[in-house]
Amino acid sequence: MGTTAAAGTEGRGEAVGEEDGAILQLLDSLDGYISLMGSLSSSLRQGWLELSSARHSMGNSRISSVLFDMKPHSSATTVDLTVSTASDADQATQPHFSLLKWGSRGDEKSPSVEVDGKTPSQASSSTIYPAVAADNQVRKKRSKALSMFGALVPPKLRVAQGSFETSLEAIIEIANTRSTILSALGRLQTVDLRS
Amino acid sequence: MANRVQIPTNNSALIAMIADEDTVTGFFAGVGNVDLRRNTNYLIVDSKTTVKAIEDAFKEFTTREDIAIVLISQYVANMIRFLVDSYNKAVPAILEIPSKDHPYDPAHDSVLSRVRYLFSSESVSSGRR
């Protein structure tokens, strides 16, 4: 009888520890979520202001949603989705989002690109600048994305593009924080059911 | 966590938008997608957009396999609040964002509402113990 009571106390202790861990994770994630929403609001406000300035200089018809449906357009920036699964059946799968901006990850190593038309074997005397080449590619893709608004776009529009890119980064972080919140909520509900 | 396995889906998924014109315009150059059949990953909401159209767009974007995140202006989400709050899948993620004329209100956010509901039911059940 004493052994049964001790085992029951130990089980309740484990459940309390697990619940505390889930609550801490939830509260941390909530704090992060609200902060990120604040950052997103700030970058979006900046983007709207710059877009309005660009519209003022170019005219309403040049920056309008009517331009969007003209021809097929592929998304230059996409999301890579990874799903983590746990061996413990109680823990739900948690998706993880990462941004593929302009078709590449920010943390990928850029492949070495030949410069001046020389192959890598001939490049012993010339320097290879993979980061510069990658930057040039991104710059070209950025300009191409704005080409729907015309061949010449004002600097304000380019700046607005940068603000909305920053907003996209915040959005990805918010999506990941949301996953963490939902995962912690799921764990709490599981612990609650067990107890 | 040692027992978690990362499974890359090898899918580049899209970000869908249900928002006002300025927000969609701002994001379009980066994430806008129009395919050969003129199917889009966005819905521009203005004064003439009906609630049915918003509901249909929400249902379409949340069931498409090529969409990972759905951005919806919070004031638009309020028009279809029941639908947004009853959505409980992890993917696509539904994110309520502010709009130019309607700042973000944490009180209406569906994720935060779920947390509030859990803690209110927790406090009720702990009171009963």
From TrEMBL, chain A:
Q: Which GO terms describe its molecular function?
A: unfolded protein binding
Identify the Pfam families for this entry.
Vma22_CCDC115
Q: Which domain of life is it from?
A: Eukaryota
Q: Where is this region: Disordered?
A: 101-127
Q: Where is the composition biased (Basic and acidic residues)?
A: 104-117
Q: A GO biological process this protein is involved in?
A: vacuolar proton-transporting V-type ATPase complex assembly
Which PANTHER family does the record match to this protein? COILED-COIL DOMAIN-CONTAINING PROTEIN 115
List the protein's name. Vacuolar ATPase assembly protein VMA22
Species: Spirodela intermedia
UniProtKB/TrEMBL annotation, chain B:
Q: Which domain of life is it from?
A: Eukaryota
Q: Which InterPro entries does the UniProt entry name for this protein?
A: ATPase_V1-cplx_f_g_su, ATPase_V1-cplx_fsu_euk, ATPase_V1_fsu_sf
**Cellular-component GO terms for this entry:** proton-transporting V-type ATPase, V1 domain
Per UniProt, which keywords does this protein have? Answer: Hydrogen ion transport, Ion transport, Transport
| Recorded GO MF terms | proton-transporting ATPase activity, rotational mechanism
Q: How does it assemble?
A: V-ATPase is a heteromultimeric enzyme made up of two complexes: the ATP-hydrolytic V1 complex and the proton translocation V0 complex.
Q: Which family does it belong to?
A: Belongs to the V-ATPase F subunit family.
What does it do?
Answer: Subunit of the V1 complex of vacuolar(H+)-ATPase (V-ATPase), a multisubunit enzyme composed of a peripheral complex (V1) that hydrolyzes ATP and a membrane integral complex (V0) that translocates protons. V-ATPase is responsible for acidifying and maintaining the pH of intracellular compartments.
Q: In its UniProt entry, what is this protein called?
A: V-type proton ATPase subunit F
**Organism annotation:** Spirodela intermedia
